[in-house]
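FORM 12-B: Structure-to-Sequence Request
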């Protein structure tokens, strides 16, 4: 979802003037005793509310600001507090929090990351009586490892559709499903760190209520998908967390002087997990590093190769090429494409792949001429890479709409995202994600290819 959206905007209802991608059925009650004849020019004076479920909504920014029920009906802090107060005997709370949210909250409270982490764990333990509190790196390591495994496997198939698209950003997945079904076959079917973390937490104990603190509202939609339901019970954003503490009259500073971070991590880590590993991160972008981790993994099986980074005209496009240091041959490639505008360009370029036979001949000729200089860093060409990390938010997840970055001024907002991005790569210790982490339980989801005959008027994409 667009980062300009916030829960605070969700205060009106869908205007019939904004046509949703979900066909709107404006059912009017027939007045009693009416004949079948239509009365021309007679319109209802009041616009009617349109009912759209979480699973219908694309979060396309068309009217998400107007659909209060969509986001707040099933996934908000009030729902969490009510569920918590109704826990039955034996029910336990597990909380997961993404690294982007930890950095955003630490920045908001003006605390170092370690001090914030300790206070957050203390708050969840002492006030909310959480049994487990975890970072999302275990889920992410599995998500990256499965992505790499799946990419290597698909490259050997005849029907391999290049480029493969990362499907961990629900904003992009929903957009593809609802308005660009031709992209769906390109989507990888590997679940996101949020969902895998949920599956891990509930693997041996279904009596767990899983609250996830995530950087955007789209994550609520992801948690509500039919094929992932049950892994995450409620998603709240850092903004909602602050509102919740205010409503509960809780001061975050009251939880600063608890046990040490190490003690809390030890105590709140699920049995069998390494207490440090789920709090770290991995190399690559602050949106998960999926693109970089793919070429890094390919490099492991290509000794003597090097990774070249090619920056785009804007900071939201980047390409990684793995090249043979001797021959200069490109062995693998991936890219990062963030923000709606760049995604639109990408979609246009992918659509351009459907050329006439004449064009195909010319393109092949040009491609073969180009191979000689393939390794030379020029402009990123995401549509030609093996794999693309696509993120709906400009700047990626470090600029998610649920983070505490409500700067009205765009320049200051970007500066804050850049600051958090730098902290992400310098403050979080990094772990390796290799295929040895691929588990026998495959964490798959199914993107849905819907028909194209849907109403798209009012769609801002
Ligand atoms: S217009 Fe877009 S954001 Fe609004 S309800 Fe429809 S899909 Fe969701
Ligand atoms: S880029 Fe990240 S924060 Fe933004 S919508 Fe996608 S998953 Fe959410």
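FORM 12-B RESPONSE
SEQUENCE OUT:
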């Amino acid at each position: 979802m667009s980062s300009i959206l916030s829960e605070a905007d969700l205060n009106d209802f869908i205007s019939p003037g904004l046509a949703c991608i979900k066909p709107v059925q404006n059912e009017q009650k027939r007045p009693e005793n009416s004949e079948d004849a239509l009365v021309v020019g007679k319109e209802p004076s009041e616009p009617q509310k349109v009912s759209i479920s979480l699973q219908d909504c694309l979060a396309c920014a068309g009217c998400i600001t107007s659909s209060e029920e969509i986001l707040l009906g099933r996934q908000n802090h009030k729902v969490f507090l009510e569920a918590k107060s109704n826990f039955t005997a034996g029910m336990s709370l597990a909380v997961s929090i993404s690294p982007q949210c930890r950095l955003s909250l630490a920045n908001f409270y003006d605390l170092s990351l370690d001090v914030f982490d300790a206070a957050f764990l203390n708050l969840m333990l002492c006030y909310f009586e959480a049994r487990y509190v975890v970072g999302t790196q275990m889920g992410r390591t599995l998500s990256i490892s499965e992505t790499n495994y799946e990419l290597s496997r698909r490259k050997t198939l005849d029907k391999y559709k290049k480029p493969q698209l990362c499907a961990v950003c629900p904003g992009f997945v929903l957009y593809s499903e609802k308005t660009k079904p031709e992209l769906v076959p390109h989507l990888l079917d590997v679940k996101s760190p949020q969902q895998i973390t949920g599956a891990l937490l509930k693997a041996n104990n279904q009596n767990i209520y899983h609250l996830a603190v995530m950087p955007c509202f789209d994550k609520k939609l992801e948690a509500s998908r039919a094929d992932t339901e049950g892994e995450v019970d409620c998603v709240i954003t850092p903004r909602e967390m602050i509102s919740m503490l205010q409503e509960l009259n809780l001061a975050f500073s009251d939880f600063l002087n608890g046990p040490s971070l190490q003690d809390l991590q030890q105590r709140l880590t699920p049995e069998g997990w390494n207490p440090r590993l789920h709090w770290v991160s991995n190399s690559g972008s602050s949106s998960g590093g999926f693109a970089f981790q793919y070429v890094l993994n390919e490099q492991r099986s290509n000794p003597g190769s090097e990774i070249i980074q090619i920056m785009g005209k804007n900071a939201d496009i980047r390409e990684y090429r793995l090249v043979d240091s001797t021959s200069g041959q490109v062995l693998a490639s991936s890219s990062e494409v963030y923000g709606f505008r760049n995604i639109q360009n990408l979609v246009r370029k992918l659509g351009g792949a459907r050329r006439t036979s004449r064009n195909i001949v010319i393109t092949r000729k040009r491609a073969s001429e180009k191979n000689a200089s393939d390794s030379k860093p020029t402009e990123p060409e995401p549509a030609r890479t093996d794999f693309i990390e696509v993120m709906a938010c400009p700047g990626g997840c470090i600029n998610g709409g649920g983070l505490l970055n409500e700067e009205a001024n765009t320049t200051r907002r970007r500066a804050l995202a850049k600051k958090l991005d730098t902290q992400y790569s310098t403050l979080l210790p990094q772990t390796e994600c290799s295929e040895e982490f691929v588990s026998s339980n495959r964490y798959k989801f199914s993107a849905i290819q819907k028909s194209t005959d849907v109403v798209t008027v009012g769609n801002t994409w």
